[in-house]
Specification:
11 strands; alpha+beta; five-stranded antiparallel β-sheet; about 350 residues
């Protein structure tokens, strides 16, 4: 077993232990398990994302029937899902970081018959194979647990639902709104940042747990200062250091989730070309792609020159990264296209 896999197994192993404890309790002591569920989930939260931290429950208003609940913290989101297994529903918690990567998977409840689905709850290799994805897993990407193919696919679907929800919640909404979360003094602070192209036009604190008498000035002054400076690099409010930094870091997280650092410049993305990484800068006007510039690459000009010139122009013309590749420069074309998708979160 590699060192990196061992490091990855440590949090998953702990989570699996907790999951199996709940599974045993709910199978034989349903009342007790229900009474202690909140306490157990609170404990699990410390392992679901890097660094643990505090979480704030968030109402889920989307259309994915698999998602039952959402907790948002400074490092990402924990999504509570329930999905049909072989003969019983399966409940999971999935931790997804702010950049959309699945960090942990915890099977909370799985009453499927052992050998016909139950085994998937404690198969470390299977659970580890689900981490590191960004919501695009298919049955070709994982090794289903022997005798538990349907349950394995169900857990995979739950992971995909969670990752896609986080990606969508972090993506620019209609009108250019971005969402970000960071720790304040008393808990997570979530902000909504409205953009006009690369300009920050407004910052709104949509949820927080701070004391108004202590942090009220920061809640009012920091968003206004960021919008005025068109940058998250502003001075903190005296007497409200934690809250000021919480708002500032939440704005930075929102901008980074869209690939932007704020201020001047467009969105940046990188993907593999033929000879190495290709990095692009994408300029947006609301939801419209107004410019694509390849800022660095290692391609051979004689081979890839046409793609480096034509693909960016085609993406702007189509207002989409889904364009035709240039004949004779497939790798370079796909590299540019995928870098643009990386930049805009497509």
């Amino acid at each position: 077993m590699t060192a990196s896999l061992k490091k990855l197994l440590i949090p998953v192993a702990v989570i699996v232990v907790f999951a199996l404890v709940l599974f045993a309790a709910s199978a034989g002591l349903a009342g007790t398990a229900e009474a202690k569920e909140a306490e157990l989930i609170d404990t699990l939260m410390g392992y679901m994302l890097p660094g643990g931290g505090e979480y704030e429950a968030e109402e889920y208003t989307g259309s994915d029937a698999n998602i039952q609940g959402v907790w948002r913290g400074a490092q990402g989101v924990v999504v509570d899902t329930t999905i049909a297994g072989f003969n019983n529903p399966i409940r999971t918690l999935v931790g997804v970081t702010n950049d959309g990567v699945v960090y942990s998977v915890c099977v909370l409840e799985n009453h499927n018959t052992y050998g016909l689905g139950g085994a998937a709850s404690g198969d470390w290799d299977f659970l580890v194979s689900l981490t590191g994805s960004e919501g695009e897993l298919s049955t070709a990407d994982i090794d289903a647990v022997t005798g538990a193919t349907i349950t394995s696919s169900a857990i995979m679907s739950a992971v995909n639902s969670a990752a896609k929800f986080v990606a969508a919640s972090n993506a620019p909404a209609e009108g250019g709104a971005l969402t970000g979360t960071a720790d304040g003094f008393a808990g997570p602070i979530t902000v909504e940042v409205t953009m006009d192209g690369d300009d920050i036009t407004a910052v709104t604190v949509v949820s927080n747990s701070v004391t108004p008498s202590v942090a009220g000035a920061a809640l009012e002054q920091i968003p206004a200062a960021i919008a005025e400076a068109d940058s998250a690099d502003v001075d903190i409010v005296a007497g409200a250091t934690y809250t000021s930094n919480g708002i500032i870091n939440a704005v930075k997280n929102a901008l980074e989730s869209a690939g932007s650092a704020g201020g001047s410049g467009g969105l940046t993305g990188t993907a593999d070309g033929f000879a190495g990484p290709i990095t692009v800068e994408v300029t947006m006007d609301g939801d419209t792609i107004t410019g694509v510039t390849v800022t660095s690459n290692s391609e051979t000009p004689a081979i890839a020159g046409a793609a480096l010139e034509q693909i960016p122009a085609a993406i702007v013309a189509a207002n989409s990264a889904d364009v035709d590749i240039v004949a004779g420069a497939t790798f370079t074309s796909n590299g540019i296209i995928n870098a643009v998708k990386d930049a805009i979160g497509a």
